[in-house]
Amino acid sequence: MIKRLVTGDNHSEMKPLIYDLDLEQLSAQLQSWGQPSYRAVQLWQGLYQQLWSRPEDFSTFPKELRQKLADEFSFTNLREAERLHSKDGQTTKILFELPDRQPIETVLMRYEERNTLCISTQAGCAMGCVFCATGQMGFRRHLTSGEIVEQVLVFARQLKDEGERVSNVVLMGMGEPFHNYEATLAAIDRLGDPDGFNMGARRFTISTVGLIPAIKRFTAERRQIGLAISLHATQDELRSSILPVNQRYPIRELIQACREYVEMTGRRITFEWALIQNVNDSPQEAQRLAELLHGLNCHVNVIPLNPTRGYSGERSTRERVSAFRDVLESHGISCTVRVRRGIDIQAGCGQLAEHADS
Ligand code: SAH
Ligand code: SF4
What we know:
The protein is an alpha/beta fold. The protein has 2 domains: 5-72, DNA polymerase, domain 1 (Orthogonal Bundle), CATH 1.10.150; 79-345, Alpha-Beta Barrel (TIM Barrel). It contains 12 helices and 12 strands. It has a 10-stranded mixed sheet with strand order 1-2-3-4-7-8-9-10-11-12. A two-stranded antiparallel sheet has the order 5-6. β1 and β2 form a beta hairpin. It is elongated and about 70 Å long. S-adenosyl-L-homocysteine binds at residues 131-132, 172, 176, 207-209, 230, 272, 274, 303, 305-306, 308, 349-350.
């Protein structure tokens, strides 16, 4: 049964990653080993409350059970290949290597009492957005739910040692979360368990390039997770030229799906906008954006473009950024300019890629 859980990611001959299982599946497994039912809860609490990372940490377990856990499960799929700290000390990026050698990255941003974690949902990305380093490296594979979960645990353990905790998780690292819908949502559910890691849905934000069927599905599920849409342009011609997915899911339909989301859930939606000098940063474009979003309960996050090797566009000047924001605000649309973090360690939005590429 367990083996089946990791098929589809082409290393099914390996031991299953323990974080790929929910409590019910762990209980079934322990029961099949003849363990009393309370063991599964102890295991769950050890993993998600004590944040233990090795079978030997479960010192109250009989030795044979610890051995069995070690024999049957992997307790880590993330090998830390490199850890980088930004000069200001506020941003840490870890480059992990998965068992099949695929690279992923996870970024911790400490800012005003908050520890925001930016995690990956895929190795690489299939969406091909031209200004994004992950898009430039292409799609490698989906992460399993356990690999998504483990990224959070790695940083949660470190923060716990410092008496702190992860305050928010944004799914804005490598990959398109809605292209890996099931694993992404399963990971959030697993971390949300009140008897385990207890990180409520409201503390997560999913960012999507705009896969409309997935947005509709997400809307119908009426979850409390935050939603951000990477918009970047108001006209299909421009949007399609920088975000190829727009050819399939054009702007009008995308905004319609966003309106339905806001209506159905009563939640505010966020739009992300990477400002590229003389491409999508004119006051006229801001004006069109204000019209497009008219009457929609939303917030716009503008991010001056971060440099990547495969794209020659440049980030907007400070003056153009302010002018863009002023137009939106004059229409009553709330807007923040995202502080550029971790640029010196290639940890900014869209800069995540395998190290050899960065
Ligand atoms: N695939 C998802 C989430 C990961 S990308 C998505 O596209 O939404 C996270 C955010 O970084 C997105 O808003 C994306 O458009 C933005 N981004 C990508 N490359 C960037 C770059 N070079 N500079 C600034 N933002 C970038
Ligand atoms: Fe993928 Fe998002 Fe990068 Fe586009 S911006 S290539 S969807 S990670």
